[in-house]
Amino acid sequence: MSVRCRFAPAPSGSIHVGNARSALFSWLYARHEGGTFVLRLEDTDASRVTEEASRGVVEDLRWLRLTWDEGPDVGGPYGPYRQSERSDIYREMTDRLLDGGHAYRCWCTAEELDERRKAALARGEPPGYDGRCRQRPAVEIAAFEAEGRPFAIRFLMPERGWAVDDVVKGEVRWGSSDLRDFVIVRSDGSPVFLLAVAVDDLLMEITHVIRGDDLLASAPRNAAVIEALGGTPPAYAHLPQVLGPDSKPLSKRHGDTSVAAFREHGFLPEAMVNYLALLGWAKDDHTTLLTRDELVDAFDLSHVSHNPAVFDVQKLEWMNNHYIQSLDEEELAARCVHFLTEEGLSLDPDLLRRAMPIVRERMKTLAEAPILLRFLFTDDVRPNEKATELIAKAPEGYLKEAAEALDALERWDSEHIQAALDTLAASAGLSRTKGWQPVRAAVTGSNVSPPLPESLGLLGRERTVARVRAAAGG
Protein backbone atom coordinates (compact mmCIF):
# COMPACT_ATOMS: atom_id res chain seq x y z
CA MET A 1 0.00 0.00 0.00
CA SER A 2 1.32 3.44 -0.91
CA VAL A 3 2.02 5.94 1.87
CA ARG A 4 -0.97 8.04 2.96
CA CYS A 5 -0.38 10.82 5.51
CA ARG A 6 -2.87 13.27 6.93
CA PHE A 7 -3.01 16.58 8.73
CA ALA A 8 -6.15 16.82 10.83
CA PRO A 9 -6.36 20.16 12.67
CA ALA A 10 -9.24 21.34 14.83
CA PRO A 11 -9.94 24.71 13.14
CA SER A 12 -10.36 26.97 16.14
CA GLY A 13 -7.95 29.65 14.89
CA SER A 14 -4.77 30.16 12.93
CA ILE A 15 -2.41 27.19 12.96
CA HIS A 16 0.16 27.27 15.77
CA VAL A 17 3.74 26.78 14.55
CA GLY A 18 3.90 23.45 16.39
CA ASN A 19 0.92 22.18 14.41
CA ALA A 20 2.40 23.67 11.24
CA ARG A 21 5.56 21.65 11.91
CA SER A 22 3.43 18.47 12.17
CA ALA A 23 1.68 19.35 8.89
CA LEU A 24 5.03 19.99 7.22
CA PHE A 25 6.57 16.70 8.37
CA SER A 26 3.48 14.80 7.18
CA TRP A 27 3.60 16.60 3.83
CA LEU A 28 7.35 16.04 3.43
CA TYR A 29 7.08 12.34 4.21
CA ALA A 30 4.19 11.87 1.78
CA ARG A 31 6.03 13.73 -0.97
CA HIS A 32 9.34 11.95 -0.27
CA GLU A 33 7.62 8.57 -0.54
CA GLY A 34 5.56 9.55 -3.58
CA GLY A 35 2.40 9.09 -1.51
CA THR A 36 -0.76 11.05 -0.73
CA PHE A 37 -1.24 13.96 1.65
CA VAL A 38 -4.74 14.37 3.09
CA LEU A 39 -6.26 17.42 4.79
CA ARG A 40 -9.06 16.55 7.22
CA LEU A 41 -10.82 19.11 9.39
CA GLU A 42 -11.75 17.93 12.89
CA ASP A 43 -14.61 20.37 13.29
CA THR A 44 -17.06 18.46 15.49
CA ASP A 45 -16.69 20.84 18.46
CA ALA A 46 -19.27 23.49 17.56
CA SER A 47 -18.31 25.61 20.58
CA ARG A 48 -14.79 26.21 19.21
CA VAL A 49 -15.01 25.84 15.45
CA THR A 50 -16.09 28.60 13.08
CA GLU A 51 -16.15 28.79 9.29
CA GLU A 52 -13.73 31.71 9.51
CA ALA A 53 -11.28 29.56 11.49
CA SER A 54 -11.63 26.78 8.92
CA ARG A 55 -10.76 29.23 6.16
CA GLY A 56 -7.80 30.38 8.24
CA VAL A 57 -6.40 26.84 8.38
CA VAL A 58 -6.69 26.51 4.61
CA GLU A 59 -5.09 29.93 4.06
CA ASP A 60 -2.17 29.09 6.39
CA LEU A 61 -1.45 25.82 4.59
CA ARG A 62 -1.72 27.45 1.18
CA TRP A 63 0.63 30.24 2.24
CA LEU A 64 3.14 27.58 3.34
CA ARG A 65 2.45 25.87 -0.01
CA LEU A 66 1.65 22.55 1.63
CA THR A 67 -0.69 21.39 -1.10
CA TRP A 68 -3.02 18.46 -0.38
CA ASP A 69 -4.20 15.70 -2.68
CA GLU A 70 -7.48 15.09 -0.86
CA GLY A 71 -9.43 17.45 1.35
CA PRO A 72 -12.56 19.55 1.91
CA ASP A 73 -12.15 21.71 -1.19
CA VAL A 74 -10.63 19.19 -3.61
CA GLY A 75 -12.59 16.09 -2.65
CA GLY A 76 -11.28 12.56 -2.92
CA PRO A 77 -12.39 8.93 -2.69
CA TYR A 78 -12.72 8.87 1.11
CA GLY A 79 -14.77 12.02 1.76
CA PRO A 80 -16.33 13.92 3.30
CA TYR A 81 -13.16 15.45 4.74
CA ARG A 82 -14.91 17.48 7.43
CA GLN A 83 -15.80 15.50 10.53
CA SER A 84 -18.97 17.56 10.95
CA GLU A 85 -20.19 15.96 7.71
CA ARG A 86 -19.39 12.40 8.80
CA SER A 87 -21.94 11.94 11.63
CA ASP A 88 -23.72 9.06 9.89
CA ILE A 89 -20.41 7.25 9.50
CA TYR A 90 -19.59 7.59 13.21
CA ARG A 91 -23.06 6.34 14.19
CA GLU A 92 -22.65 3.30 11.95
CA MET A 93 -19.22 2.50 13.40
CA THR A 94 -20.49 3.00 16.95
CA ASP A 95 -23.29 0.51 16.29
CA ARG A 96 -20.73 -1.98 15.01
CA LEU A 97 -18.71 -1.58 18.21
CA LEU A 98 -21.83 -2.01 20.36
CA ASP A 99 -23.00 -5.07 18.41
CA GLY A 100 -19.55 -6.63 18.63
CA GLY A 101 -19.31 -6.18 22.40
CA HIS A 102 -16.52 -3.60 22.08
CA ALA A 103 -18.57 -0.73 23.54
CA TYR A 104 -21.39 -0.23 26.03
CA ARG A 105 -23.77 2.43 27.27
CA CYS A 106 -22.74 4.34 30.38
CA TRP A 107 -25.29 6.12 32.59
CA CYS A 108 -22.79 7.47 35.14
CA THR A 109 -23.35 11.16 35.82
CA ALA A 110 -20.55 13.71 36.03
CA GLU A 111 -21.16 14.02 39.78
CA GLU A 112 -20.91 10.25 40.29
CA LEU A 113 -17.73 10.04 38.27
CA ASP A 114 -16.16 12.88 40.24
CA GLU A 115 -17.12 11.30 43.55
CA ARG A 116 -15.61 7.95 42.59
CA ARG A 117 -12.48 9.62 41.27
CA LYS A 118 -11.94 11.37 44.62
CA ALA A 119 -12.54 8.12 46.49
CA ALA A 120 -9.95 6.32 44.36
CA LEU A 121 -7.38 9.00 45.03
CA ALA A 122 -8.12 8.83 48.76
CA ARG A 123 -7.39 5.09 48.65
CA GLY A 124 -4.12 5.76 46.85
CA GLU A 125 -5.41 4.30 43.60
CA PRO A 126 -4.94 5.88 40.16
CA PRO A 127 -8.04 7.73 38.93
CA GLY A 128 -9.90 6.43 35.93
CA TYR A 129 -13.20 4.86 35.01
CA ASP A 130 -13.94 1.85 37.20
CA GLY A 131 -16.10 -0.04 34.71
CA ARG A 132 -19.31 0.43 36.71
CA CYS A 133 -21.57 0.27 33.65
CA ARG A 134 -19.89 -2.72 32.03
CA GLN A 135 -22.26 -5.03 33.87
CA ARG A 136 -25.12 -2.91 35.17
CA PRO A 137 -27.95 -4.99 36.64
CA ALA A 138 -30.88 -5.23 34.23
CA VAL A 139 -33.20 -3.67 36.80
CA GLU A 140 -31.04 -0.53 37.01
CA ILE A 141 -30.82 -0.27 33.23
CA ALA A 142 -34.58 -0.56 32.97
CA ALA A 143 -35.02 2.17 35.57
CA PHE A 144 -32.61 4.50 33.74
CA GLU A 145 -34.36 3.88 30.45
CA ALA A 146 -37.75 4.51 32.02
CA GLU A 147 -36.69 7.88 33.36
CA GLY A 148 -34.99 8.77 30.07
CA ARG A 149 -31.63 9.17 31.76
CA PRO A 150 -28.99 10.32 29.25
CA PHE A 151 -26.10 7.95 28.54
CA ALA A 152 -22.71 8.12 26.91
CA ILE A 153 -21.09 5.26 25.06
CA ARG A 154 -17.77 3.89 26.29
CA PHE A 155 -15.23 1.79 24.48
CA LEU A 156 -14.39 -1.40 26.33
CA MET A 157 -10.61 -1.35 26.50
CA PRO A 158 -9.17 -4.89 26.44
CA GLU A 159 -7.52 -5.65 29.78
CA ARG A 160 -4.00 -6.23 28.62
CA GLY A 161 -0.79 -4.30 28.18
CA TRP A 162 -0.31 -2.28 25.01
CA ALA A 163 2.77 -1.37 23.01
CA VAL A 164 3.14 1.11 20.16
CA ASP A 165 6.25 0.85 18.03
CA ASP A 166 6.59 4.58 17.46
CA VAL A 167 8.70 5.57 14.45
CA VAL A 168 10.29 8.43 16.38
CA LYS A 169 10.25 7.31 20.02
CA GLY A 170 10.69 3.59 19.57
CA GLU A 171 8.56 1.09 21.49
CA VAL A 172 6.28 2.71 24.07
CA ARG A 173 4.42 0.48 26.54
CA TRP A 174 1.33 0.90 28.73
CA GLY A 175 0.15 -1.43 31.45
CA SER A 176 -3.45 -2.68 31.48
CA SER A 177 -4.24 -0.45 34.48
CA ASP A 178 -3.09 2.61 32.53
CA LEU A 179 -5.78 2.29 29.88
CA ARG A 180 -9.31 2.42 31.25
CA ASP A 181 -12.55 2.33 29.29
CA PHE A 182 -13.15 5.71 27.67
CA VAL A 183 -16.07 7.65 26.23
CA ILE A 184 -16.40 7.56 22.45
CA VAL A 185 -19.86 9.17 22.14
CA ARG A 186 -21.11 11.93 24.46
CA SER A 187 -24.55 11.88 26.01
CA ASP A 188 -25.70 14.38 23.35
CA GLY A 189 -24.78 11.89 20.64
CA SER A 190 -21.67 13.68 19.37
CA PRO A 191 -18.55 11.61 18.71
CA VAL A 192 -15.43 12.10 20.81
CA PHE A 193 -12.02 12.75 19.24
CA LEU A 194 -10.80 9.25 20.14
CA LEU A 195 -13.56 7.65 18.07
CA ALA A 196 -13.64 10.05 15.13
CA VAL A 197 -9.87 10.01 14.60
CA ALA A 198 -9.67 6.24 14.71
CA VAL A 199 -12.62 5.77 12.35
CA ASP A 200 -11.30 8.34 9.89
CA ASP A 201 -7.76 6.96 9.89
CA LEU A 202 -9.20 3.49 9.26
CA LEU A 203 -11.63 4.41 6.49
CA MET A 204 -9.26 6.86 4.79
CA GLU A 205 -6.57 4.15 4.79
CA ILE A 206 -4.02 6.38 6.53
CA THR A 207 -0.69 4.55 6.75
CA HIS A 208 1.31 7.05 8.84
CA VAL A 209 0.09 9.38 11.59
CA ILE A 210 2.69 12.08 12.21
CA ARG A 211 1.70 14.39 15.06
CA GLY A 212 2.90 16.02 18.27
CA ASP A 213 3.83 13.86 21.23
CA ASP A 214 1.15 15.54 23.35
CA LEU A 215 -1.12 13.01 21.60
CA LEU A 216 1.05 9.98 22.36
CA ALA A 217 -1.35 8.73 25.05
CA SER A 218 -4.10 8.61 22.41
CA ALA A 219 -2.18 6.14 20.23
CA PRO A 220 -3.09 2.88 22.06
CA ARG A 221 -6.73 3.99 22.33
CA ASN A 222 -6.87 4.89 18.63
CA ALA A 223 -5.22 1.59 17.78
CA ALA A 224 -7.64 -0.39 19.97
CA VAL A 225 -10.69 1.12 18.26
CA ILE A 226 -9.24 0.43 14.81
CA GLU A 227 -8.49 -3.19 15.73
CA ALA A 228 -11.99 -3.63 17.18
CA LEU A 229 -13.37 -2.50 13.81
CA GLY A 230 -11.26 -5.11 12.05
CA GLY A 231 -8.51 -2.83 10.78
CA THR A 232 -4.77 -2.48 11.18
CA PRO A 233 -3.55 0.67 12.97
CA PRO A 234 -1.30 3.05 11.06
CA ALA A 235 2.33 3.61 11.95
CA TYR A 236 2.63 6.36 14.55
CA ALA A 237 5.37 8.99 14.63
CA HIS A 238 5.08 11.37 17.58
CA LEU A 239 7.17 14.50 17.23
CA PRO A 240 8.97 16.13 20.17
CA GLN A 241 7.53 19.32 21.59
CA VAL A 242 8.47 22.77 20.37
CA LEU A 243 9.75 24.86 23.28
CA GLY A 244 10.24 28.56 23.83
CA PRO A 245 13.58 30.13 24.82
CA ASP A 246 12.70 29.43 28.48
CA SER A 247 12.54 25.68 27.73
CA LYS A 248 8.80 25.61 28.36
CA PRO A 249 6.26 24.51 25.74
CA LEU A 250 5.79 27.21 23.14
CA SER A 251 2.61 29.15 23.88
CA LYS A 252 1.09 32.63 23.82
CA ARG A 253 3.27 33.70 26.73
CA HIS A 254 6.13 33.68 24.20
CA GLY A 255 4.20 36.06 21.93
CA ASP A 256 1.90 35.28 19.04
CA THR A 257 3.16 32.02 17.57
CA SER A 258 0.52 31.46 14.92
CA VAL A 259 1.41 31.01 11.26
CA ALA A 260 -0.85 33.96 10.40
CA ALA A 261 1.12 36.22 12.78
CA PHE A 262 4.44 35.35 11.16
CA ARG A 263 2.91 35.98 7.73
CA GLU A 264 1.61 39.37 8.88
CA HIS A 265 5.00 40.22 10.35
CA GLY A 266 6.62 39.78 6.96
CA PHE A 267 8.21 36.35 7.04
CA LEU A 268 8.50 34.46 3.76
CA PRO A 269 6.91 31.01 3.39
CA GLU A 270 10.23 29.70 2.07
CA ALA A 271 11.94 30.72 5.30
CA MET A 272 9.15 29.37 7.52
CA VAL A 273 9.19 25.98 5.79
CA ASN A 274 12.98 25.73 5.94
CA TYR A 275 13.03 26.75 9.61
CA LEU A 276 10.13 24.55 10.72
CA ALA A 277 11.77 21.56 9.03
CA LEU A 278 14.79 22.00 11.29
CA LEU A 279 12.70 21.91 14.48
CA GLY A 280 13.51 18.37 15.52
CA TRP A 281 14.90 17.14 12.18
CA ALA A 282 18.17 17.57 10.33
CA LYS A 283 19.54 16.39 7.02
CA ASP A 284 23.00 16.13 8.58
CA ASP A 285 25.15 17.92 11.14
CA HIS A 286 25.98 20.96 9.01
CA THR A 287 23.27 21.79 6.44
CA THR A 288 20.93 24.63 7.41
CA LEU A 289 19.55 26.15 4.22
CA LEU A 290 17.44 23.80 2.11
CA THR A 291 15.00 24.52 -0.68
CA ARG A 292 11.60 22.84 -0.69
CA ASP A 293 12.77 20.29 -3.27
CA GLU A 294 15.89 19.55 -1.23
CA LEU A 295 13.76 19.02 1.88
CA VAL A 296 11.48 16.58 0.05
CA ASP A 297 14.47 14.70 -1.30
CA ALA A 298 16.25 14.47 2.08
CA PHE A 299 13.36 13.99 4.50
CA ASP A 300 13.46 10.81 6.53
CA LEU A 301 11.56 10.11 9.75
CA SER A 302 14.58 8.25 11.10
CA HIS A 303 16.36 11.63 11.34
CA VAL A 304 13.72 13.13 13.64
CA SER A 305 15.19 13.85 17.05
CA HIS A 306 13.75 12.41 20.27
CA ASN A 307 14.45 15.68 22.07
CA PRO A 308 12.33 18.85 22.16
CA ALA A 309 13.24 21.65 19.76
CA VAL A 310 13.65 25.29 20.78
CA PHE A 311 11.97 27.94 18.65
CA ASP A 312 14.55 30.67 18.02
CA VAL A 313 13.04 33.80 16.43
CA GLN A 314 16.48 35.32 15.82
CA LYS A 315 17.54 32.31 13.75
CA LEU A 316 14.26 32.53 11.83
CA GLU A 317 14.92 36.23 11.15
CA TRP A 318 18.42 35.41 9.90
CA MET A 319 17.01 32.75 7.62
CA ASN A 320 14.26 35.09 6.43
CA ASN A 321 16.85 37.70 5.47
CA HIS A 322 18.69 35.03 3.49
CA TYR A 323 15.56 34.26 1.49
CA ILE A 324 14.77 37.97 1.05
CA GLN A 325 18.22 38.45 -0.47
CA SER A 326 17.71 35.48 -2.77
CA LEU A 327 14.70 37.11 -4.49
CA ASP A 328 15.24 39.18 -7.63
CA GLU A 329 14.22 42.84 -7.58
CA GLU A 330 10.89 42.29 -9.32
CA GLU A 331 9.78 39.51 -6.99
CA LEU A 332 10.95 41.23 -3.81
CA ALA A 333 9.17 44.44 -4.81
CA ALA A 334 5.96 42.49 -5.46
CA ARG A 335 6.11 40.93 -2.01
CA CYS A 336 6.64 44.32 -0.36
CA VAL A 337 3.57 45.89 -1.97
CA HIS A 338 1.10 44.58 0.60
CA PHE A 339 3.06 45.96 3.54
CA LEU A 340 3.54 49.37 1.94
CA THR A 341 -0.06 49.82 0.82
CA GLU A 342 -1.24 48.76 4.28
CA GLU A 343 0.49 51.94 5.50
CA GLY A 344 -1.53 54.00 3.03
CA LEU A 345 1.39 54.66 0.70
CA SER A 346 0.81 55.26 -3.01
CA LEU A 347 3.44 53.32 -4.92
CA ASP A 348 5.41 53.91 -8.09
CA PRO A 349 6.20 50.33 -9.22
CA ASP A 350 9.38 51.30 -11.06
CA LEU A 351 10.71 53.32 -8.13
CA LEU A 352 9.88 50.46 -5.75
CA ARG A 353 11.76 47.99 -7.91
CA ARG A 354 14.81 50.28 -8.10
CA ALA A 355 14.77 50.66 -4.30
CA MET A 356 15.15 46.93 -3.65
CA PRO A 357 18.98 46.76 -3.87
CA ILE A 358 19.39 49.32 -1.09
CA VAL A 359 17.06 47.60 1.39
CA ARG A 360 17.27 43.84 0.75
CA GLU A 361 20.29 43.33 3.03
CA ARG A 362 18.73 45.40 5.81
CA MET A 363 15.30 43.76 5.95
CA LYS A 364 14.86 40.92 8.41
CA THR A 365 11.19 40.84 7.44
CA LEU A 366 9.04 42.40 4.72
CA ALA A 367 7.19 44.35 7.41
CA GLU A 368 10.27 46.57 7.67
CA ALA A 369 9.76 47.84 4.11
CA PRO A 370 7.50 50.77 5.17
CA ILE A 371 10.00 51.83 7.83
CA LEU A 372 12.84 51.89 5.32
CA LEU A 373 11.03 53.18 2.25
CA ARG A 374 8.21 55.43 3.45
CA PHE A 375 10.18 58.58 2.59
CA LEU A 376 10.15 57.63 -1.10
CA PHE A 377 6.39 57.35 -1.45
CA THR A 378 5.11 60.34 0.48
CA ASP A 379 6.15 63.94 0.98
CA ASP A 380 4.47 64.00 4.37
CA VAL A 381 7.78 63.39 6.14
CA ARG A 382 7.73 64.50 9.73
CA PRO A 383 10.95 63.99 11.68
CA ASN A 384 10.66 61.59 14.58
CA GLU A 385 12.08 62.51 17.98
CA LYS A 386 15.64 61.40 17.23
CA ALA A 387 15.59 63.00 13.79
CA THR A 388 14.38 66.26 15.31
CA GLU A 389 17.32 66.20 17.75
CA LEU A 390 19.80 65.60 14.92
CA ILE A 391 18.43 68.53 12.92
CA ALA A 392 18.57 70.78 15.97
CA LYS A 393 22.19 69.82 16.70
CA ALA A 394 23.45 70.53 13.18
CA PRO A 395 25.93 73.44 12.97
CA GLU A 396 24.32 76.77 12.16
CA GLY A 397 23.70 77.10 8.45
CA TYR A 398 24.79 73.49 7.80
CA LEU A 399 21.56 72.25 6.25
CA LYS A 400 21.23 75.38 4.11
CA GLU A 401 24.73 74.76 2.73
CA ALA A 402 23.79 71.10 2.17
CA ALA A 403 20.75 72.12 0.13
CA GLU A 404 22.81 74.50 -2.02
CA ALA A 405 25.59 71.94 -2.56
CA LEU A 406 23.15 69.22 -3.58
CA ASP A 407 21.15 71.55 -5.82
CA ALA A 408 24.32 72.59 -7.61
CA LEU A 409 25.40 69.07 -8.55
CA GLU A 410 26.02 68.61 -12.25
CA ARG A 411 24.97 64.96 -12.13
CA TRP A 412 22.41 63.46 -9.76
CA ASP A 413 23.75 60.04 -8.89
CA SER A 414 24.92 58.33 -5.71
CA GLU A 415 28.62 58.86 -6.51
CA HIS A 416 28.32 62.63 -6.91
CA ILE A 417 25.89 62.92 -4.00
CA GLN A 418 28.33 61.08 -1.70
CA ALA A 419 31.19 63.32 -2.77
CA ALA A 420 29.15 66.45 -2.07
CA LEU A 421 28.07 65.21 1.36
CA ASP A 422 31.64 64.24 2.28
CA THR A 423 33.01 67.64 1.19
CA LEU A 424 30.32 69.40 3.22
CA ALA A 425 31.07 67.34 6.34
CA ALA A 426 34.82 67.85 6.05
CA SER A 427 34.45 71.62 5.66
CA ALA A 428 32.43 71.69 8.89
CA GLY A 429 34.99 69.54 10.70
CA LEU A 430 32.57 66.64 11.02
CA SER A 431 33.00 62.94 10.49
CA ARG A 432 30.96 61.34 7.71
CA THR A 433 28.53 59.89 10.28
CA LYS A 434 27.91 63.19 12.05
CA GLY A 435 27.86 65.14 8.82
CA TRP A 436 25.37 62.90 7.06
CA GLN A 437 22.95 62.40 9.96
CA PRO A 438 21.22 65.83 9.83
CA VAL A 439 20.66 65.42 6.09
CA ARG A 440 19.32 61.90 6.61
CA ALA A 441 16.96 63.19 9.31
CA ALA A 442 15.74 66.04 7.10
CA VAL A 443 15.10 63.88 4.06
CA THR A 444 13.73 60.66 5.59
CA GLY A 445 12.34 61.92 8.91
CA SER A 446 14.35 59.24 10.71
CA ASN A 447 17.78 58.63 12.13
CA VAL A 448 17.84 55.29 10.31
CA SER A 449 17.50 54.77 6.57
CA PRO A 450 18.96 52.83 3.66
CA PRO A 451 22.38 54.11 2.42
CA LEU A 452 21.99 57.88 2.16
CA PRO A 453 23.52 58.68 -1.26
CA GLU A 454 21.52 55.89 -2.91
CA SER A 455 18.37 57.01 -1.08
CA LEU A 456 18.76 60.59 -2.28
CA GLY A 457 19.49 59.34 -5.77
CA LEU A 458 16.16 57.54 -5.84
CA LEU A 459 14.26 60.41 -4.23
CA GLY A 460 15.43 62.89 -6.85
CA ARG A 461 17.03 66.31 -6.76
CA GLU A 462 13.88 68.41 -6.42
CA ARG A 463 12.32 66.50 -3.53
CA THR A 464 15.64 66.10 -1.71
CA VAL A 465 16.58 69.78 -1.88
CA ALA A 466 13.08 70.86 -0.89
CA ARG A 467 13.16 68.73 2.27
CA VAL A 468 16.64 69.84 3.31
CA ARG A 469 15.69 73.52 2.80
CA ALA A 470 12.50 73.02 4.80
CA ALA A 471 14.49 71.51 7.68
CA ALA A 472 16.93 74.45 7.45
CA GLY A 473 14.05 76.82 8.01
CA GLY A 474 13.30 77.69 4.40
Task: Summarize the topology.
Blueprint: E1 4-7, H1 17-32, E2 36-39, H2 51-64, H3 87-99, E3 103-106, H4 110-122, H5 138-147, E4 152-155, E5 162-166, E6 170-174, E7 182-185, H6 193-203, E8 208-212, H7 219-228, E9 235-239, E10 242-243, H8 259-264, H9 269-277, H10 292-298, E11 309-310, H11 313-326, H12 329-341, H13 349-359, H14 369-373, H15 385-393, H16 398-407, H17 414-427, H18 432-444, H19 452-459, H20 461-471
Parallel strand pairs: 1-2, 8-9, 10-11
Antiparallel strand pairs: 3-4, 4-7, 5-6
Main attributes?
single chain, 474 residues, mainly alpha, Glutamyl-tRNA Synthetase, domain 2, Arc Repressor Mutant, subunit A, 3 domains, three-stranded antiparallel sheet, elongated
Short overview:
This protein has 474 residues and is mainly alpha-helical. The chain has helices at 17-32, 51-64, 87-99, 110-122, 138-147, 193-203, 219-228, 259-264, 269-277, 292-298, 313-326, 329-341, 349-359, 369-373, 385-393, 398-407, 414-427, 432-444, 452-459, 461-471, and strands at 4-7, 36-39, 103-106, 152-155, 162-166, 170-174, 182-185, 208-212, 235-239, 242-243, 309-310. The model has no long low-confidence stretch (mean pLDDT 94).
